[in-house]
Amino acid sequence: MSASRSNRWYLSTAPILRALVHLCVPMAAAMIVGAVYNVINAGFIGSQHDTALLAAITFGTPLLGLVMAIGGVFGVGGGALISRLFGAAEHDPGQAAGIKHVSSFAVWGSVIAGVVVGGAGLALLHPLVTLLGADTAAVTATREYVAVMLAFVPVLAAAFCLEQIVRAEGAARQAMNGLILSTIANVVFDVVLILFFHWGVAGAALGTGLANLITVAYFAYWLQRNSEHVSLAPRWFTLRADVLKPVFGVGVGELLQFAFMIVTVLVLNNLAAGYGDGPLAAMGVAVRIAQVPEFLIMGVTLGVLPLLAYAYGKGDRARLNAALRASAITVGGVMLVLGGSVFVFREQVLTAFSGDQAVLAIGVTILVAQLVATVANGFAGLITSLFQATGRARPAIVMSMAQGVLFIPIVLLGNSLFGLPGIIWALTVTEGLVFLIGVGMWLAARASIDRGLAEGSPERAEAVLEGAEA
């Protein structure tokens, strides 16, 4: 059995628990490795004993959101459609013919969008750094970090997009290999560029860009050698409506989510900066530590998306419901065990990254708030994955917009009434409200999803990519 057919067996007929292990464990492992790298990266920068450098990375965080937004538009939207088409092909093999068009459009679309956004950012570098909220002490380091990251936006976006396409085939282990390869390369580059050449945050950004270039090469090579239907050849690139509509229908939700995340971080940074570099540095460290359980949960919610999409495209109601139920139990269990462990040892973990008592005191509070928010965010993410997998653009977009729309007034009100604690807990309150909104929309959409399953999914009827052979 070829690697491609073996991976699709997990999507199609493998026992649910075995399928979840195959899809989610590698994804979660890769996410954890990435989260651990973020902590190590902060350690490399922290070894330079300059708080402004740590602050610069925090100010530059929205750029990573920008990259994920670009890659997510094409990668998540394209990947979900590819998985649905694979599922639909079980009843109609002709459905697989359009996958070449979808994959080529997704990859090259992400590259082109990355070039445009990265170029515009470099042309407007000075006002962009000011917009990010960098103060006088951190402005030079932030400018260096941002400039290098912008130069690599096309590469970073393509890497994120290709990862989604590889996962759409059910090849979770290969997606994990690519992400781990990127992390290992990143650590090596950090040692050379930061510790040896002393290039500081510019070296950190350059290392990230080069490591993702290696990842792009790995994913492209694997797809070329192993995928029966996915193609990255430019000749398959198309702007047909039956490709653009389903890809952007789901992908625009990703764009809005990360766009609002950028706004959220900008507002947060600017408000926190008013309390000095100490709280800002503590926020950067605490957020990175909290990302360990958060990324593990994201590994589950993102890892299960191809399984949900395949089951929906196939019209398999029992498999879709079983996958959703098992994923929810897994998310709850992970948060209880890992999130609880981080909470219990929060002070010891923070001490490893800073000896400043002021930073430690505020860092503990931030870490607790982040962990509580992660619980709600995990279940909300699973609901969003269900909407994306079933091609329901409107509720997916609402979920993506809800956090940003709610967070800004909540954080402004929190800052006005409670000062710094109000800023810290604003995200926690917001995530809880987003989860409640998601539950309401899920209950409202259940009948529609059931009809789609019974009829054989709207996408198989409307987005089969008629004329794909042409």
Automatic annotation (TrEMBL):
One Pfam family from the record: MatE
Membrane protein topology class: Multi-pass membrane protein
Cell compartment(s), UniProt: Cell membrane
Positions of transmembrane segments: 20-40, 52-82, 102-125, 145-166, 178-199, 205-223, 243-268, 288-310, 322-345, 357-384, 396-417, 423-445
Entry superkingdom: Bacteria
Alphabetical UniProt keywords: Cell membrane, Membrane, Transmembrane, Transmembrane helix, Transport
Presence of the UniProt keyword Transport in the record: yes
InterPro entries: MATE_fam (IPR002528), MATE_MepA_subfamily (IPR051327), MdtK-like (IPR048279)
Protein name: MATE family efflux transporter
Species classification: Bacteria, Bacillati, Actinomycetota, Actinomycetes, Micromonosporales
